[in-house]
Design a protein that fits this description.
With 387 residues, the protein is α+β, with helices and mostly antiparallel strands. It has one domain (4-105, 112-310): q2cbj1_9rhob like domain (Jelly Rolls). The protein is 27% helix and 15% strand. The protein has ten helices and twelve strands. The protein has helices at residues 17-31, 50-59, 70-85, 127-130, 161-167, 170-180, 253-260, 328-348, 358-363, 371-376, and strands at 37-38, 61-64, 112-115, 149-154, 185-194, 202-205, 224-229, 239-241, 269-270, 278-282, 287-289, 298-306. The strands form two sheets. It has an eight-stranded mixed sheet with strand order 1-2-10-7-12-5-4-3. A four-stranded antiparallel sheet has the order 6-11-8-9. Helix 2 (50-59) links the parallel strand 1 and strand 2 (61-64). Helix 3 (70-85) crosses helix 5 (161-167) and helix 5 crosses helix 8 (328-348). The longest helix has 21 residues, at 328-348. The protein is globular, with a radius of gyration of 20 Å. The N and C termini lie far apart (42 Å).
C-alpha cells in the first residue's frame, strides 16, 4: 500500500530559508534539553507520576514517548487515508472527488477548516476572538498546488473508530486525571493535517477566552490539549511552545514578535515526537506552528481536556460553539464520548485494563459502544465545552 509518507514534497522559505533552518536546528537542540519527555510513568497508586506532573507544570508541555504501537498506528493511518479520500472536492462541495457524499457534508457543527497552501488563515484577523494577532510568514507553494486545502477537522471521533479508541487509551485518560483531576471533562476533538509543501501555519496564540480575568485564575485554568502523533513531528512541522508562558497571564504577542524582529520567537522550542508519541500542551502557553515546507507529513489527533470546576456554570466562549452556560446535564452528555471511547477500546483490546472514569463510576451511568452509540455521535461537537 502506498502510504501518506511516500507522497512527500518540499518547498523552502525563499530568501528567509537560511535563517529559518538555523532557527529550526537550534530550537530542536533546546527542546531536548528541557527534561520534559519520557514514557508514561505511574506512582504506586496508579496515578500519573509526580515527577511528570512537575515537569509539565514547569514547562507547560510534556512529551510521552511510545504510547501507541505499530498495530494501532496502522489502524489510525487506515482511517486517516479514508478520511482524506472523503474530503470535499473543494470547499462547500457536497461530494468528494469520487462523487460520494463528502465527509462532513451533513454536519451542522463546524467540521472542516480550509486554507490556501502554506497560508495562515487566522493570523492578523478577528477570527477566534482575535487571539492570533500577528500573521505568520506565508511561503510560496510549488506550482500546480490546489487552491485550498483542509488543515483542521473538528468532531473527528465521529469519523474514525480508530481515533475514538485512541481517545480511550488508559494512559491518556490517566494523564488527564493527573493534570485536571479525576472529574476531568472533555473540551473538543480534532485532527490537524500538515501536508508536505501545503500545510498551513497556526499563528502564535494562547488558547482560552473566559478565565483570564477570573479571581481564581491559575496556570491550569484553561485546560490542556493531548496531541497524539501518527507520523511524529519535527521542528519544521510541529507545534512550538514558549516554555513557562502558561504562568504569565495574557502575553502581548504583537510586542513579542516585534522585539524578535520576526515570527521566530527566540524563547520558543518545538515539540519533537516520534510516531506513536503523545504530547500534552497547556492551552495558556504561547504556541503556534509554521507552514509545513518540510518533506514530512504531520497528522495529529487532538483531544482537549478541562477541569470540571473550570466548566460547570460557566458561559462558554471560543469558536467551537455558540456561547452557553455549561450545566451538569450538558457536561454529562458531552462526557459520554469518554465512556464510548473506553468501551470501544475494551472491545478492540480485551487484554488491556480499561480506564475507570470516576464521574460515571460514581453515578452509575453506562454508555456502551454499539451502533446506537455510533449514530448518536453525529454532530456531537455541537456540545463542545469551549472556554
Amino acid at each position: 500500500m502506498v502510504t501518506i509518507q511516500e507522497q512527500a514534497i518540499a518547498v523552502d522559505y525563499g530568501d528567509d530559508s537560511d535563517a529559518m533552518a538555523a532557527y529550526l536546528r537550534a530550537g530542536g537542540e533546546k527542546a531536548h534539553a528541557l527534561g520534559n519527555r519520557g514514557p508514561v510513568r505511574r506512582d504506586a497508586s496508579g496515578a500519573l507520576h509526580g515527577d511528570i506532573q512537575d515537569a509539565y507544570w514547569r514547562c507547560g508541555f510534556y512529551v510521552f514517548e511510545g504510547v501507541f504501537g505499530q498495530e494501532e498506528l496502522a489502524e489510525i493511518e487506515a482511517d486517516m487515508l479514508d478520511i482524506l479520500d472523503r474530503l470535499p472536492s473543494e470547499q462547500g462541495a457536497p461530494h468528494d472527488a469520487k462523487g460520494r457524499p463528502a465527509l462532513g457534508a451533513d454536519c451542522a457543527a463546524p467540521t472542516l477548516f480550509w486554507s490556501k497552501p502554506l497560508g495562515d488563515p487566522f493570523g492578523g484577523t478577528d477570527l477566534a476572538n482575535g487571539r492570533h494577532p500577528v500573521k505568520m510568514l506565508e511561503p510560496t507553494p510549488a506550482r500546480d498546488t490546489p487552491a485550498e486545502i483542509v488543515y483542521l477537522i473538528l468532531g473527528s471521533l465521529q469519523f474514525s473508530d480508530a481515533c475514538l479508541r485512541a481517545y480511550g487509551h488508559p494512559d491518556l485518560l490517566t494523564i488527564s486525571a493527573g493534570i485536571n483531576g479525576e472529574d476531568f471533562v472533555p473540551f473538543t476533538d480534532a485532527i490537524f493535517v500538515k501536508e508536505p509543501g501545503l500545510g498551513a501555519s497556526v499563528a502564535w496564540h494562547q488558547d482560552g477566552v473566559t478565565h483570564w480575568d477570573s479571581p481564581t485564575w491559575d496556570q491550569g485554568s484553561h485546560g490542556f490539549n493531548i496531541m497524539a502523533q501518527l507520523y511524529g513531528c519535527t521542528p519544521a512541522n510541529g507545534v512550538w511552545v514558549v516554555p513557562g508562558s502558561h504562568k504569565l497571564g495574557k502575553v502581548d504577542i504583537g510586542a513579542a514578535v516585534a522585539a524578535a524582529g520576526s515570527e521566530r520567537l527566540p524563547d520558543a522550542v518545538p515539540i519533537v515526537c516520534a510516531p506513536g508519541d503523545v504530547a500534552i500542551t497547556n492551552r495558556q502557553a504561547l504556541h503556534g506552528s509554521f507552514a509545513n515546507t518540510s518533506p514530512d507529513w504531520r497528522v495529529t489527533l487532538n483531544f482537549g481536556c478541562h477541569r470540571r470546576a473550570s466548566i460547570l456554570g460557566v458561559a462558554g466562549g471560543g469558536l467551537h460553539n455558540a456561547p452557553a452556560v455549561y450545566d451538569a446535564a450538558r457536561i454529562r452528555q458531552r462526557a459520554r464520548l469518554i465512556a464510548y471511547a473506553i468501551d470501544a477500546r475494551r472491545q478492540r483490546f480485551p487484554d488491556e485494563t480499561p480506564f475507570v472514569y470516576q464521574p460515571f463510576a460514581q453515578s452509575g451511568d453506562s454508555f456502551p459502544w454499539d451502533e446506537t452509540a455510533r449514530q448518536s455521535m453525529h454532530d456531537y461537537n455541537l456540545l463542545d465545552l469551549s472556554i
